[in-house]
Design a protein that fits this description.
- By secondary structure, this protein is α+β, with helices and mostly antiparallel strands.
- It is about 40% helix and about 30% strand.
- It has a four-stranded antiparallel beta sheet with strand order 2-3-1-4.
- Helix 1 (about 15-30) packs antiparallel against helix 3 (about 75-85).
- The two termini are about 20 Å apart.
- The mean pLDDT is about 95.
Length: about 100
Amino acid sequence: MPKGYWVVHNTVNDADSYREKYVPLNQAPIAAHGGKFLVRGGQSETMEGSLRPRCVIIEFPSYQAALDCFRSEGYEAASVERRKFSEGDVLIVEGYDGPQPGDT
């Protein structure tokens, strides 16, 4: 079964409040749904197009788990706080389990 991913691009307008109020609230629902941070900010360079400056990618065991986490009561409470201190775009996407370049 393909994994599920949250792909988030956001602009944090108040980093201290974001870290103090949003981040602690997102931990439990993400962990409860098997989420794992693959990218959490860090250096990036937009090669084409225009994106927000912060990228976060969270891997879940399945697409359904990714949807369920985002729609959970716990994450909804966290997202209320997130929207106070940042603005962004969130995409939930199903991973790919098929052939890869170089496979024979």
